[in-house]
Specification:
446 residues, alpha/beta, OB fold (Dihydrolipoamide Acetyltransferase, E2P), Rossmann fold, 12 helices, 13 strands, 48% helix, 19% strand, elongated
Length: 446
Amino acid sequence: MAEKKTGHIYTVSKLTREIKSLLEDTYPFIWIIGEISNYSVPASGHAYFTLKDHQALINCVIFKNQKLRLKFEPENGLKIIGMARLTLYEPRGSYQLIFEHMEPEGAGSMQVAFEQLKIKLSEKGFFDAKYKKPIPFLPSAISIITSATGAAVRDIIIVAQRRFSNCHLEIIPVKVQGDGSDTQICEAIKFVNQYQRTDLIILARGGGSLEDLAAFNSEAVATVIFESNIPIITGIGHETDFTIADFVADLRAPTPSAAAELALPDKNNLVLRVSQLRESLNVSIEKKILELNQMVSNFTSRLKNPEKIVYDHRFRIDDYESRLINRMKHYLLYNKEKINWLSGSIRSKQPIITILAYRQQVESLSYSLTHAFQNLIQIIKTNHLELDLKLKVLNPEAVLERGYSISRFVSDKKVITNSNDVKNNDQIEVILFKGRLITRVEKTNG
């Protein structure tokens, strides 16, 4: 048996703790670059993944709180650079990186988040042309959602006044960048849809960096734009700037001024066009009148003298009258002779006996008919009572009177049978036995 060497003997736990301390003291925080693989997020909300390059890999984790602060969603195959702490997980004796922060390597996190959200909303159909609402040709009122102090609102007002000064403009001031700006934009769009005082919404702001336009690249703003019942034109930034809001909107304008151009027709052009149409209509009417007058003249020349026509009809009527009188005289004479012959025949045949026999038969048949008719009426009454009782049982008003109600959407009068068909803030009409209620959904239970 080999002799045991003298010196310090480690337990597994002690050795592991010392290695852990050595690693954490030597590498308290490091910057590291690599490619994400085996990415997973269990119910805890923490993200576990492997970071690798072409020669090695290491286990990593980013906890839920740090993950929520990321501006993009990590995914397999994405190359990242991040700051992490090196630690050792004692129960398994394996070391891992705990990330405090990470960003996509190369492209910025906001650009990656933009592309990820663009793909997500495209798969949901937010960009589909079939959901785009038509822009009204001549809106009577327009809601402008933008900063109250920016150049965008002034540009829109100037263009709108120049193109069609009669249109009412409603300015709804909001923050267009910074914390809470996306929330204010969402609330403004919901406000306009709730009160329905305008026919069109212009959502606008001046140019800026991707960070400045962050509010217009949020999923919340995109969802509210998609759900808006009022058409929305976006005029965000400069011509080369594209935001998620532009893709979802019913119409995208390259600038705020262009949004006003697209929203309103040129009044001077409309007035000129109306004048041209009026002149064309007058010419067409005069031409048609001339054609009709010519037609009347042609018909007049082809008509016969009315007096001659009247005389011809008068002679014809006299002839018809003479022929009718002769036929009537002949008919009366014939029927007089026939009556005389029938009278003699009746007197010779003594019909009183036959009449009495038929009278008795008629009385018998009349009694049978009356009895059968009474039985039929009784059967019909019985059936009617049974059907009436069934109708009363199935009558919807009877169901409502027992305390039930019918709920349907205010917008399309569709009856609601499943709570999953209803979303928060939907307007619902509740039909009671007496009266109706208009309500708004605050919460649904599936």
